[in-house]
Design brief:
- With 320 residues, this protein is of the alpha/beta class.
- The chain contains 15 helices and ten strands.
- α1 (2-8) packs antiparallel against α2 (13-35), α4 crosses α13 and α7 crosses α9.
- The longest helix has 23 residues, at 13-35.
- It is globular and about 55 Å long.
- The two termini are 29 Å apart.
- It binds D-glutamic acid.
- D-glutamic acid (DGL) binds next to α6.
Length: 320
Amino acid sequence: FQARALNHSANSPIVNGYITCKLHCYATVFGLLLQRNYRWLILSSPLNTMRIGIFDSGIGGLVIARAIVKRLPQYDYVYLGDTQRVPYGNRSQETIYKFTREAVDYLFRTQNCALIIVACNTASTVALRRLQHEYLPKHFPKRRILGVIRPTAEAVTKYAGRRIGILATATTVASKAYIREIKKQKLKAVHVYQQAAPLLVPLLEQNAQRWLKPIASEYIRPLLRHKIDTLVLGCTHYPLVKKLIRATVGSKIKVLAQDEIIPAKLADYLLRHTEIAGVLSRRRTRQLLVTDVTYTVRKLARRWFGVSAQLKLVRYGHEV
Ligand code: DGL
């Protein structure tokens, strides 16, 4: 407001001062009204122009995006899947951090996101804390990046399992992030067993249905030997095969899938963080951005988001 007033009245200090002062008054009244929860004002505010970004290394996050959009349809969303460089799960920590930082930077700088959900467990495990503590304060202190590990660990508490199996990528397993987060929930006598499933993501990205069942069973078998009562699908891609996984483990084992966890957590976050909810636009648009338009991307985008969702190929990736 102030910058615009100064530009328009550069030749007249009196007019300039008057306009600036008047706009200050408007801004103050506006802020007060916001604080008093005038929802209609939030809806029509010129300030709410920003989108929610959802990032994943590939197509897996589309499952999460679909569930989020279903739960909170009023907002505008932009999905970014790095389908050209997937999988992240077998890469070094430095590379995963670099790729994730490039993605969030692209979403913030060019897609006007106020909030980004890093739907990728591997990226959340490796990059989230560093992005929150180093990148955000330096580049976008008022915006937010959320991950998926903690909300999933909280869901484990809710279901009160005692023998928890984690199925995830090699990087997520090696980081022990789930073990740490579940232990933080202070569950008594909880045992956590992990299993890396490095082949599942490439198979899902390629839509290689024939191999999914035998390979998923092979990965799940060691967890069953530990007599788990809860199985956490600790990778964004795995909800794509949750029916198959549920059939493999049987009905006595509770399977926690992130598309059933993250939307409610986000809704709760936005209720508690009105400074973010207040700047989000509500035109119900959905844009899907990918770094490679593969067959599977096209199929899932059309099936889940319809023809109205714009699927676009993008290029990004520079040092920030
Ligand atoms: N989407 C990632 C996750 O949730 C895994 C895929 C990958 O390896 O890139 O861990």
